[in-house]
Amino acid sequence: MLASLLARVGSAAAVAAIAVTGATATAGAASAATTHPPRLATHLSIAKVPALLHHKHVVVIAGDLRSHRIPLRDKVVFLDRKTASSGWVVVGRELTHRFGHVAFVVDPKANARYVLVFKGSLNFRPSHSRVVIVKARA
């Protein structure tokens, strides 16, 4: 009877030890799964190109999103405009095309500063272009 009691206590201790180490292993695996690999650097270029659209002079702000010279497709790029009162304000949103290109048509009534912004993703770091100034047409 004493041997049977010791066997029960021993097996209960073993079950408890397995449960504790199993829970620890599961917690370790869960915390390991939430660590992300380092995100890749990105570069966002910008250019302004005068254009004629429906007999009206406009400016096309074009950009190119890349990571280590590889074009990034289907990424969201924002066009921000500098305002005197609120700072930078989002005025446009587009997805990059097959070769990482993006374009926005603008026709400001007064001189305006624009910048392209990529807010990053799980795999890529955020980046922004330099600022370009678009002058209003008289």
* Biggest β-sheet description: 5 strands, antiparallel
Shape, principal axes of CA atoms: elongated
Radius of gyration, in angstroms, nearest whole number: 28 Å
Question: How many domain regions?
Answer: 2
Low-confidence stretches: none
CATH class of the largest domain: Mainly Beta
- The name CATH uses for the topology of the largest domain is Immunoglobulin-like
* Average of per-residue pLDDT values: 85
Ends distance: 104 Å
Q: State the secondary-structure class.
A: alpha+beta
List the main descriptive attributes of the protein structure presented here.
138 residues, alpha+beta, Immunoglobulin-like, 5-stranded antiparallel beta sheet, 4-stranded antiparallel beta sheet
